Queue: 2 jobs
Job 1
Amino acid sequence: MTAFGKSPERTARELFAEAAGKAYDDAGLSPGAVEEVFYGNFMGQHAEQQGHSGPLAADSAGVTAPATRIESACASSGAAVRLGVERVRNGAADCVLVGGAERMTNLSTAEGTAGLASAADALWETKAGVTFPGAYSLMANRYFHEHGGGREDLAAIAVKNHRHATENPLAQFQREITVEDVLTAPTVCSPFGLYDCSPMSDGGSAALLVSEEFAEERGLDPEVAVTGTGQGGDRMALHDRVSMTRTPAAERAAAAAYDDAGVGPDDIDIAEVHDCFTVAEVLALEALGFYETGEAISAAADGETDIEGDRPVNLSGGLKAKGHPVGATGGAQVSEMTKLLRGDHVNSDAVSDAEVGLTHNAGGTVASCVVNVLEVVA
Amino acid sequence: MSDDGTRDAGYDDFLDAVEAGEPYYLESPSGNGWLPPQQFDPETGERELTEEPLPETGEVLTKTVVNVAGPSFADDAPYVVAVAQFGPVRLTGQLQVEGQKRGVGPEEVEVGQEVAVGVARNETEGERVVVLEPV
């Protein structure tokens, strides 16, 4: 992945090209090996007036092959990874380039807010004035009503994820914050202050997925494999869900990924989850089966998901501190998890025994979700 | 309604019905409620959806105060968005700020507040908006 941050002048195509170049270098492969491209991008039409960006991504990465843009809001590149995995598994391709990119900071806050809101139901939510942070605020306030908890619990999540990112050279925010900082920041949508929200970011991510046969023929020695993948869906509008405090799409994605990998929640050593807003991490931990419903709210405050905790979550800094260039996020989770597991991430030493990792990438208010399980195989 | 005046079938029909005092929802044979346009019950796949009168009042399930809005609501912020349950269907709408005239400010509206559905126009663009009025 590229460094995430503010680079308003850089186009998404350039960001993806940089990420692809790093993936080629990491794998020891060249563009000629790629047989198909799945490119995640959410708001290219809004931010760059650019649709049909699959072939453009292939051009940028030096590839002549079938190329498709995958759009599933914030889960776009998680879905791209999943499609690539399935292409390799079913024998349709031996080497697939997956990932994504997003350019966001060339937009004003209002324009970016409008772009992100297009992940909601345009008639029944957006026309009522629902913003993306607004929708998650509705979930947070309902969660507090049903299960308890409060702003301090959410603040602990932001503080933790910022702390995890302090040494990550690819993270947008490499600095610590305090609970006081979170609680006194300007309010975006009650109960969220500025530090409860992931930032607008620019960035790209890329990975090369190869078959075992291809790896053997080329003399590659990948140390990590995607051993399970799952995707779940749910009603688009928050008000149409069975519950506003659970995320069944993530539950379904996790169940499928666990079954695919032959593991369960207790086998997961580390996880990168979709903390677009602080409460989203709480909902993810419960959907993944790490906690019972209503019990993950205090996980960060109690230190359980800290780098020194029993089950470290978002060692990259998460979306909150690493940044959230929407279309690149799912691929970046896979990139960071790969490095964490094989030992060349800045935070790898703290989890040197970790062998099984999980990525959780959610779209909208989790109307779509992709979960991937990665394992050390070398 | 779109910028060029083209109606959004189903959505604008619902707003018309609210303004006419005859709001409705769509119910499937299983009893699930949905907002138009909807040809299938997404939970069951059933196709025989019928129009049913929306209950006169609903109950606020959650709310938030939006301080940072998109361009379409820039002049409206801050405003309050809520989700309310009306029988088998839920609606997202803005808590009617005029409700303050009745002594109900946004901060005073709690989960469980009884509301009725209405239609107002937003300040920024003059577009119709679903509103939830405390009763």
Job 2
Amino acid sequence: MKRAVERHLNILEFTLASLLRRRAKNLSLLAMYLLVIFMLASLLFFVSALKREAAIILNDAPDMIVQRLMAGRQDLIPAGYAAEIAAIRGVTAVRPRLWGYYYDALNGANYTIIAGDAPTSAPGRATVGAGVAKARNLAVGDLLPLTSYDRAPVMLEIGTIFPSGSDLVAADLIVVSSADFHQLFNFPGGQATDLAVTVRNPRELPTVAAKIASQFPDSRPILKSEIQRTYQSIFDWRGGMTLIVLVSSLLSFIIFSWDKATGLSAEERKEIGILKSIGWETSDVLLLKFWEGIAVSLTAFLLGTVLAYGHVFFLSAPLFAQALKGWSVIYPRFQLVPVVDAYQLALLFFLTVVPYTTATVIPCWRAATIDPDAAMRY
Amino acid sequence: MRRSLQFLLFTAVNLTIFLLLPLHARHAQSGGYAKLQSAQLRSLHVTDLCLATEARYTRHPAMADRHAPFQEHPLALEHFPSGSLILPPLQHREKP
Amino acid sequence: MIELSNITKSFNSGKPNQFTAVDNVTLAVKPGEITVFKGPSGSGKTSLLTVIGCMARPTSGRIFLRGVAAAVPFQHGGLEEVEITSLPERFLNEIRRSTFGFIFQQFNLVKGITVLENVMLPAYPTGEGRGEFRARALNLLEQFSIARLAGQRVDLLSGGELQRVAIARSLINNPSIIIADEPTAHLDSKLSRDFMAIVGRLKGEGKSVLIASHDPIVFDSPFVDTLVEMRDGAVVASRSCR
């Protein structure tokens, strides 16, 4: 037992010594490997945390949204629809929603403006998201000047600013009173952007949706489950952004390990011959190569994962911010609640550490089985 | 200390931190998300996440129109990169 | 005592380019002596040494080791004689590691690592504690007066220093037999004589030394006990120099 441990330690010792020989080469190799793992793990952490928060937030979404379509575009829905929908069996409440977009010419940002309920949104007052407050440099009590449809100024006093912790839903929100909303956009009375429908029994949702669709052929019901599925598909690792990054980094990784696997240099071959000639067995040489693969890949995997965790959950994923931000002026700060998906990390392990180690050991197999006397004949 | 032991120790430390990650995540989850759920936000019946604000179909993917990508402007074919990262809503891909 | 009986070693057997390097050699090498295999290149010296040193198996014939068989696990009981040609690979390796030390014509040191590590290299897979063989390696470096080079990489050494490192490495596992293949081919006359002096000292410590060489400094050296002359794979003459 002790001998076996000593053998491992000794061979590991030589592995490290020989890795350190080509210090620059091997350190850059490790750095590149670390970067691949870091990016992949960051992405996995980022996406699974977003997925979880989306699930929690969308749990509070309305059971159903009813939109009206006109000429293939979403149009305002008459408030009269609300009363008729409310009369359908199983519907407990219908709430017209007033919301829209406001383009801020000052800084090029898009805001989402929502008309809130009376108690929280008094006329002349607004509640804004942290992103808006930051973009316009606002504090509670400040005046936010907006421009109405006819270029008349509308001054709103900031009542509350949503905490930045709620950025994921509220970064670009401006919540105003219905009166201000109508004034701002010349929004016609008796109309709504869409209707939020609450249904008593969630199992009746499809029936209710079918009834609405047949009663109002120009309407389009969107179920809560469809909203949730939209987000699941955005964050699904098989689709969208995850797949692109995953496939591209795995491809580059495969090319790189392939290059490494096939490129057993003459010098390495000679070295293996020397080791064999001075009494190393084939299994010793393979153990050496195994440790070589492990030393690089396990270090890269563990360090990369830990760094990615810090990057996403402590630093709010600054590297992905750029990619998601795109043209947006307002960008939410992702203060994500940490999520560790063991399955995905295991997948990452088996897609990186295992193939790399194999790619290090396998090409040496042939070289390691040469006769020990080959070294005598150089 | 021997180099091999140094390496093993280093790996052990890494492994420990790595194994602590799920514990940290669980701890953070147990007290973390009430902040998202303020009463006022809940009363707004939010349907979408604020991920990217530059276009209608990236700000409200679940609410976007059937032909959303063509709606902004005849020349604005695509918003890069968020437009290529966020897929059209699922229900619009499944139904004709 | 090493006893060879009807050893033949051929390469590419069965093919048109078959070639017999060692042809039916029967020989006894006495322990604690210096035996030199002399002959022109291509006479089968190196092939014979690889066969004796358990690096390669002979095509036919048998080799007996007497009094050096400690490493073979199932023969601890008392068998004094081991027939090594029929042993499985694992035991052959074990014997090679514990019984033989090798000095190669090109020295075969591993570039980029230190002298000390090169000397310790053969001991790594034995499972011996590092502290023990490290002390032994330092002691050997001391003996060959190259202790000051211990931390230096082998790439920077001179020919004579390389030679000493190679000798030290061959001794790290305490072998009873040293095998050297053309050890003086890359040395000048003075260094060659130094080498023979070292070999003489090893003999004094009870080691058997087998040298393949066509260098007169080696086979005319006063330390040599037995001279085996080879030509075309066969032993032409074998005489004691004492």
